Amino acid sequence: MSPPHKNHSRPAGRPSHMPNGTVPFNFKNYFENEAYIYYGYVGPIITVFVTIMNVLLIATIIKGKFRTSTHAVMVAIAITDILTGIIPVPFNVLFFSVEHLENFLKIEWCYIFEICQIILPTVFHLISLSLTVGLSIERFCLVSFPLKVKRFCTMRNGILFSICVFAISVCAQIDTFLDVSYEPVEIITRDRKSTITGCRRLIKDISDEEFITRMFILRFIPCILLIIFTILLLRKSSDIQKWRKQSTSTSTATASLERMDFAVSVIAFVACVTELVTASLLLREHLSSQYRITTSNALLSGIIYAVYMTVSPINLAILCFLSEKFRKTFKGIFCRH
């Protein structure tokens, strides 16, 4: 795919004198290696597709009257995936597609950029990861202690569980809103007749050890938990097949439970592999850039954003493939007769 036409206009102004030779924040790094393509074109297109797929997932679960905690957590994951993709889209389309802006950002847009482009998508993505861990643990408990846990695994409790995970995840990441700030900088326009108020990006001093610890807690520990509980779930599901055949009324019901166990395992596996690879790349890039937006990490972040969005709809595909009831309900949304 050939890149869209690139605007080679120079910045609209020159920075005023600033300490340490720092220049006002601009989008130069996003355009130097075509990273803007992922933000302004590829990302929004994928996000539209992801949003449609996740809305269909939610609609199918609601219409099919799936009332277990497993389905409630799946709905919560779908919602967070939608928010992860949608939040940066208006900003990205405006600046990378419509205006094709390579100039300095005004101070009011700098805060919007940081919140919509970096902070909130990361927060919601990590909430989705935490919910996937919760989904895996919930399914393992349901398989391991079916008689004791079943009465607690209701739609209502699944919703309450998702809200708790959401709240804890936000609290765990609240400090990210304070890591970066902006201060106003007067920028003289090229004709020297006026000035605009740009911004300088100020980064909180965070040691490598602190950053690695945060990455380990928020990204790698959830992946480790996913691996552990996915393995345990598959083993336990295999162990209780005989009991299920004796306790359920039909072989179809038994097969349906086994397919749901496998579906949750596949969802957890895909999320784990994606997160381990991308988190490792982000960690390596951070250690070399120290929170600065460089040409390489602008491109890497754009690619990872597109990858996250591409992987997101897999939950719908897995459920359609493995659950006959879900598949019939999904078809019923489009085929009335």
TrEMBL record:
Does the record's keyword annotation contain Transmembrane?
yes
Q: What is its main location?
A: membrane
Keyword Transmembrane assigned: yes
Q: Where in the cell is it found?
A: Membrane
**Top-rank lineage group of the source organism:** Eukaryota
Q: Which InterPro entries match?
A: 7TM_GPCR_serpentine_rcpt_Srw (IPR019427), GPCR1-related_rcpt (IPR053071), GPCR_Rhodpsn_7TM (IPR017452)
Q: Which GO terms describe its molecular function?
A: G protein-coupled peptide receptor activity
- List residues traversing the bilayer: 36-59, 71-91, 111-137, 158-178, 216-234, 262-283, 303-322
The alphabetized UniProt keywords are: Membrane, Transmembrane, Transmembrane helix
Q: Which Pfam families match?
A: 7TM_GPCR_Srw
Tell me the ranges covered by the G-protein coupled receptors family 1 profile domain, including all copies. 53-316
UniProt GO cellular component terms: membrane
- This chain belongs to which protein, by name? G-protein coupled receptors family 1 profile domain-containing protein
